[in-house]
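User: Modeling request: complex.
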Amino acid sequence: MSSFGIKNEKLAGWNRPPVFESDGEGELLEVAMGPHHPSTHGVFRMDVVLDGERVIKLKPVFGYLHRNHEQLGQTQSYLANMPYTDRLDYFCSLTNNWAYALAVEKLVGQEVPERAEYLRVILAELTRVQNHASTIGFLLQEMGASGTPLMYAFREREKILDLFESLTGSRMMCNYMRFGGCRVDASPAWIEATRKVVAGLPAFVDEFERFLMTNEILMARCQGIGVLRPDLAVNSGISGPMLRASGVNYDIRKVDHYGIYDRFKFRVPLGDHGDIYDRYMVRMLEMRESISILNQALKDLPAGPVMDPKAKIRNFRPKAGESYGRIEAPKGELGFYLISDGSPNPYRYRVRPPSFINLTVLEDMCLGSNVADVVLIFGSVDIVLGEVDR
Amino acid sequence: MASSPYFSLAVLFVVALGFGLAPLGLAWLWQKVFSPAKPNEIKNAIYECGLQSRGDAWVQFRSAYYLYAIIFLIFDVEAIFLLPFAVAFTGLGAAACVSMLVFVLLLIEGLAWAWAKGVLTWA
Amino acid sequence: MKSVEEIKAAIETAVPGAAVTVIPNPAPNAQHSLLIGAQHGVAVAEFLRDNEELALDYLSNVTGVDYLDKEIPEKVKVTRQVSKTVDGVEQTVDEMVEETRKRVEPGYLEAVYHLFSVAKKHGPVIIRMRTANRTDQVELPSLTPVWRGAEFQEREIFDLFGIVFTGHPDLRRILMWDEFKDHPMRRDYVEPDDFEYEPTAHDEVLKRAQEHKAKVAAGEAVQ
Amino acid sequence: MAVDEKLKIELGKQGVMVTTIQELYNWGRRSSIWPMQFGLACCAIEMIATTMARYDLARFGSEVFRPSPRQADLMIISGTVTKKMAPQVVRLYNQMAEPRYVIAMGACAISGGPFKQGYNVLKGIDRYIPVDVHIPGCPPRPEALIQAFMTLQKKIDEQHLTGEGRPRHLDEQAPGEFQVPEFGEHDLDPPSNPGTWTVPKIIQ
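Assistant: Request completed. Predicted assembly structure:
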């Protein structure tokens, strides 16, 4: 069952990759960087055709972690799906919750109290910091710095996970947001602990940057490799740090004006080459922006209810209709498309996975580069298999 | 016999060898006596990321890799000979120097040819 | 951003003969959608992408939806020979009788596209395309040549729902293994029978567990 | 012929170490179990967090995560085993060197977990390969994974070299090969390995 059979060779125009012609000197080696591979962030498979070290053709194969998230979503009630959204992108469970809650709130026109909006922004930005730190840690791990940068990143991540655990009860699977607010209020002690952690984050980002930014191995291995043109990125539906690294100014927090992001002053970092080094830098700068948002949000966090009293929890039956809600998740545009027919279960429950769609251009970036660079390019795309295969 | 100057060296050598081989021998004996060998077809199959491996790995590589190996020879072998040459340089006579230089320059000439041919600039 | 009706008018002027109808969305977020006829799908898509006013160059989401066949009871006036004794004489006379007849409305598979504009930064324009029915005519034009973002998502819809996208450069199964038969996300997909233990089983899971127990008792299934 | 404890302690006081080959053999094997780098889903992130500085799996001699099955002694199945991934998991288990152990980490690996009703999810990996330690949780905390390591070490400690309590790799009759399932039309071809999986009896 060779998976290279492209039946329809008539590829459409410029937006399909030119198949890289090898100069026919040596034989091609067909190998699978398969489901069990140290560099594939889980069970992702790339069928690679190599001419010596150079990649001639690369076909991603999905489905090894297809856990039927959407089918299960359609057999359960709206509220029962909330803990399942934690397991979509298992690095950022709170942004998944927020995206799902936003979609359902759009479906029924539900209001969210002030304090809940602030808590959502604080938790989402904390999630973004720990996700970007882990991504850079894994990227360096694949570059050969085995363990050390990852240790620094996970040290910060543990502090943030402690905050999540003390607030929501679980480190990774928070299941914290409800339609119309949040499940439990944040105690003053928790706010104080958050301030202390956020106060320590700039020192961590400085330390991380001092080690990595001018490291010549990193610059040699990352600059100019895996370049993604902005027009191809937009046409392929790429979103998140990968899109902004190619120079396209598109951040859903600024475009959709969802939540209360308009009240905070933050900039959107853009890259101009679209290579791995730009993606790394965009993530670093986004961490700094998140820290500034956190400081602003923690400064004027209002008192008040965390859950809209009129919100219906028991026997939640939205009227017929559909809604598409999306947010700027750390990996890109995470959207939920719900079609309801008045029953307690959604008729159609669809997740718009940023990691899955960002892999559309993996072959374009990897053609012609060495195998070792394929590992890096794949790491810089930053995918999580729970979201890719759903 | 015990008085020859190298005897202690021989004893040390034997002890070192024994120290290395004894555990291996014990492990081999242990494996023979206690744990039965259970080879089977799946266990001996080629490991390719959990899949059944397709195709063959004995492909004919590009010629650039063979040149790459030969040039490595220049740097590697020459470096080994340069070391003692540099150390003993002062005590050597003219003839020894000339013969050593012949060896070194011959290899440098090989490197110059490869450089001129552009083999070093990777595709 | 233009309203759905304006976009509909713009499409009809730009692509003559394109069947465009507005599907209202009763939910308060008012994300109405446009149902596009399958023949002119690619032409409409290219218009939406290249038009300066709309500039919908970013395809965010492609979703497959499965609508089952629906039986619609209908009151039908039927003339029927009814034997009736008219003033003592036995004769058959046709008479208007009202009866409800089940009219089966064919279900369809639907592909929903959410389009955004990165250039103009404006919100979702939703277009939908429907297949004729769920069994044999399941072709839809693929929009991958217009937006490459649709490539994997259309392959996923082909894999899980069975819509065949014509013009897709690489239409293969993406999530299930290649030897898998039929399409698991369809409403009428029945999973293979398997040992089922659910401590607090309810509705379908309970039904499936009891069926399995009956099968084991009847000796068909081995577990 | 167990060594009687009192004599052992007395000799220990005099600085004389007394042990049996079995204790030495088990101590050697349990103190450096090298797990295979085999992350499937969310539990893999908790496994990585366990190896990081805070929870530090290195205290149990297991911080070396070997990517290839040839050099690994332990396979931690951390995450949901889907039906598309099951043949690869069983083939990897077969390709591991013989004294090999399996930790089924998380509810998904034990019984399919929250995704049990999915059409592509295997209801527990013990249908195809023998599992030594089960860790409940979704995902189990890093401490639970460390407790699983201690359980596994205790289990290795109690193994005898000959006779009844022998581990699988010292026992001729114990099967060395576990059948790799094929891809069927809707399900894997043998839905479960007859040798290793029996229907659990539910005691009401």
